[in-house]
Design the sequence.
């Protein structure tokens, strides 16, 4: 990039697991809660932002252009533009990339970029049969007509609403649920059930370690706390991510039945990311904004990349997005201090590791001379990931960038890669440097 783009600060809400009912917060509640605290500790006023960009994959119908809704709720004023981006699982990373693009073009110097989703509030929907029935009911004029329609009420459809989140997690091109694409990777790279469950258990163990050490909830190494506690309308406090299971082991996870391929599969709810609510923000600034407001950057974005691949193999998106960055920067996998690969599924992360180790995959799919190598797993998701934390689709891309910088600062590392697979057959990655 021809000029530096800095990350000044960031904050997120706790990630709250869906309990099969609407959660306590709307998406804009979560975005506003994290953003208000983050902006309150900055040396500039919220009204001095050039723009607010928010990634969201599933905004509710009463929060259309949720980026503008959040900007107004956070006190950014009427003149600060707020807008929304959507790139499925990478919507939060797209917000950062969109902010960078405007900063590199000279249109912005100070940007609030983030991601949010309240997946517990994804609506139940009726199919066309019920919609047409309701339309016919609205057109009736007499009691007799209404009674006649009630006599033809399609009870089967009344009692079988469409679970919209399942439809949203089904690829419209290949027709597969995201978990089925993970099964594809498990088959392709010979990943067995035990390996998936061991990886999932490790995610829970690492998040548990991070929580007990207060690496997420308290300031450290000159950084503000990553998590901002939130209160619901009844005054109940939500201070920490609540999807993590301290007692999670591979043996316990082995008891769960496959979910996406019930006969032959190995991908379960336990070795998949959780359906979760959460919001995250980062403050981005150019060199000019840093000097003008006397800001203290925590990191710098060195490079970024988007990539496309077969939607049925979408979990390998991180391989396709990070490899060009490594080539441009002259880096090997283990030249970086830390990696964050969003844990959509254990099989998906393990599939990425398998692809890099495969001579055949690297030659045929990436155009390399041979295998890129074996990533040191002690550098990967050192504080766990979405299997234990959850995956609020619009928020995760921002979370992994922010957390990567926190982890680099804590461990004394310098450079790290944040990468994410994206429904639809895409991958996204950002190379960052801690300052």
Sequence:
């Amino acid at each position: 990039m021809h000029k530096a783009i800095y990350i000044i600060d960031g904050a997120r809400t706790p990630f709250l697991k869906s309990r099969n009912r609407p959660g306590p917060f709307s998406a804009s509640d979560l975005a506003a809660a994290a953003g208000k605290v983050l902006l309150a500790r900055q040396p500039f006023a919220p009204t001095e932002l050039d723009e607010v960009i928010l990634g969201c994959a599933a905004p509710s119908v009463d929060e259309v252009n949720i980026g503008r809704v959040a900007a107004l709720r956070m006190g950014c004023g009427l003149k600060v533009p707020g807008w929304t981006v959507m790139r499925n699982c990478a919507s939060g990373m797209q917000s950062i990339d969109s902010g960078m693009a405007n900063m590199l073009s000279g249109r912005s110097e100070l940007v609030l970029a983030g991601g949010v989703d309240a997946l517990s509030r994804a609506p139940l929907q009726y199919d066309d049969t019920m919609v047409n029935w309701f339309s016919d009911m609205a057109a009736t004029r007499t009691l007799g007509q209404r009674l006649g329609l009630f006599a033809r009420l399609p009870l089967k459809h009344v009692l079988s609403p469409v679970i919209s989140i399942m439809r949203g997690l089904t690829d419209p091109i290949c027709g597969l649920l995201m978990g089925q694409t993970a099964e594809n990777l498990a088959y392709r790279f010979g990943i067995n059930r035990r390996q998936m469950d061991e990886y999932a258990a490790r995610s829970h163990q690492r998040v548990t370690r991070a929580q007990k050490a207060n690496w997420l909830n308290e300031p450290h190494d000159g950084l503000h706390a990553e998590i901002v506690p939130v209160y619901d309308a009844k005054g109940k406090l939500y201070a920490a991510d609540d999807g993590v299971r301290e007692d999670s082991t591979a043996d316990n996870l082995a008891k769960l039945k496959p979910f996406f391929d019930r006969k032959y599969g190995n991908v379960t709810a336990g070795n998949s990311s959780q359906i979760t609510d959460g919001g995250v923000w980062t403050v981005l600034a150019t060199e000019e904004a840093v000097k003008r407001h006397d800001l203290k950057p925590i990191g710098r974005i060195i490079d970024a990349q988007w990539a496309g691949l077969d939607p049925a193999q979408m979990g390998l998106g991180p391989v396709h997005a990070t490899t060009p960055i490594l080539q441009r920067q002259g880096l090997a996998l283990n030249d970086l201090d830390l990696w964050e690969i969003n844990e959509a599924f254990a099989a998906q992360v393990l599939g990425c590791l398998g692809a890099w180790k495969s001579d055949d995959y690297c030659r045929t799919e990436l155009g390399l001379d041979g295998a890129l190598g074996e990533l040191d797993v002690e550098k990967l998701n050192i504080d766990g990931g979405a299997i234990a934390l959850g995956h609020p689709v619009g928020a995760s891309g921002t979370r992994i960038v922010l957390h990567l910088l926190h982890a680099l600062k804590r461990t004394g590392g310098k450079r790290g890669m944040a990468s994410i697979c994206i429904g639809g057959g895409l991958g996204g990655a950002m190379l960052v440097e801690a300052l």
Remarks:
- Residues 128-160 form one domain.
- The mean pLDDT is 96.
- The longest strand covers residues 276-286.
- The CA atoms of residues 315 and 348 lie 5 Å apart.
